Amino acid sequence: MRMIFLCMALVYLAICVMFSTAKASELNCLVEAVYYEARSEPFVAQLAVANVVLERVRDHRFPSTICSVVHQGRYNKKGQPIRHKCMFSYWCDGKPERMKEIAALKTAISVSEMALNGVVVEITVGATHYHATYVRPHWILSHTFMELGQLGRHIFYLDTR
Fold it and tell me: Based on C-alpha coordinates, what's the Rg of the chain?
């Protein structure tokens, strides 16, 4: 058991070094995701959302950059996201992305920087999925998703495949 935790710590240390040199555009994409997905949530819940984005970047089943992860979805022939066909709902909800709440933006920046520097909310370790408590996505019915816990109004899941 100790060996597993030691290995996980070493993996996260390597990831921490890798992400400490993230480009400004990648930081901006993480800030954007945290802001639009969780700005009304407590700080730790926002950090959990950032952790999921970064976990997806590390997972071979998802794109390998932060921007590609948060902008993942279906696009039309003109390159526009198709409404309600994105991994992160804010990206294709049809609303413009304008961060007007300064305090929430500052928090999203702090959260994103912490996540990029390796701060992880324990219950999100390995989580690649989450959803708000007021929705029930079809994928939670799959036996491959294990609920890890809830923070704020988001429930986090591990995909056991």
Answer: 15
**Which residue's structure tokens are 């993996």?**
11
Burial of 41-51, coded b for 16+ CB within 10 Å and e otherwise, reads: beeebbbbbbb
Structure tokens at 54: 């970064």
Largest alpha-carbon pair distance within the chain?
A: 51
pLDDT tens-digit series, residues 2-17: 444 333 443 444 444 4
One-letter identity of residue 37: E
pLDDT tens-digit series, residues 115-132 = 999 999 999 999 999 999
d(CA 68, CA 78): 18
Q: How far apart are CA 20 and CA 157, in angstroms?
A: 26
Instruction: Determine contact, residues 53/69, Cβ cutoff 8 Å.
Output: yes
Separation of alpha carbons 60 and 81, rounded Å: 23
Residues 116 and 54 sit within 8 Å (Cβ to Cβ): yes
